[in-house]
Design brief:
Blueprint (H helix, E strand, L loop, with lengths): L2 H14 L6 E6 L2 E10 L10 E7 L10 E4 L42 H13 L9 H9 L1 H15 L13 H8 L5 H11 L9 H11 L2
Antiparallel strand pairs: 1-2, 2-3, 3-4
Helix pairs in contact: 3-4
């Protein structure tokens, strides 16, 4: 598959996948080598609810070499530079070490995709690796004082990653989404179902609507 066809296919796959919670967009319709990825910070982390934007440069050798990714959104994390947005993640490194993630051997293979890479970044926010840092100062705080780290990361999320446009929720109330998340359902499927049913809010005593949503989620 040619590089151009591969990128077009990946864009279509992301659009069709309503559960992944990943947005992938071209910066310019005429340039397939420059994209932006977006995702929401994972729940139960200092990044929860924040909107994170990742700059993606596609090299001519893609998919045999990894995309060059860096965070546009400032973020306080051991594996992401708080200054440049550079990322330390094995799958963004090729065997030659030529990538945005620094030197060393990497885990990138052509089987991986832009979507899987962005999902891995989202997972990295849940599970920092301070012993293999991109930002040594942040990693030091993480190891020495977890409370200070989380407080700072939460503050940076509020300041630098506000989800003002409710990119996923639209008019849907966040508490309603969390109600079904607590039952074990996927956040992005919940949003899709609520939009389909044209429900913005489920009141605590409204069992009929709650059951209606659950039945749709179980399909």
């Amino acid at each position: 598959m040619s590089r151009v066809r591969r990128i077009h296919k990946e864009l279509e796959d992301v659009k069709k996948d309503k559960e992944a919670g990943i947005i992938l967009e071209l910066v310019s319709e005429n340039d397939l080598s420059h994209l932006k990825g977006k995702f929401i910070g994972p729940r139960d982390t200092p990044y929860e609810g924040g909107l994170f934007i990742v700059d993606i440069q596609i090299p001519p050798e893609y998919p045999f070499k990894p995309p060059l990714m860096k965070f546009d959104t400032k973020i306080y994390h051991p594996n992401i530079s708080s200054v440049t947005g550079a990322i330390c993640l094995d799958i963004l490194k090729s065997d030659s070490g030529n990538s945005s993630s620094g030197g060393g051997h990497g885990a990138w293979t052509p089987i991986l995709t832009l979507k899987s890479s962005l999902i891995s970044l989202q997972s990295l926010l849940q599970s920092p690796e301070p012993n293999d840092p991109q930002d040594a100062q942040v990693a030091s705080v993480f190891l020495k004082d977890r409370n200070e780290f989380e407080e700072t990361a939460r503050y940076w999320t509020k300041i630098y990653a506000p989800n003002k446009d409710n990119i996923l929720l639209g008019t849907i109330e966040l508490k309603t989404v969390q109600l079904f998340e607590d039952m074990g359902f996927n956040k992005f499927k919940i949003v899709e179902v609520l939009k389909k049913l044209k429900i913005d809010k489920v009141y605590s005593g409204d069992e009929e609507t709650k059951i209606k949503v659950i039945e749709e989620l179980l399909k």
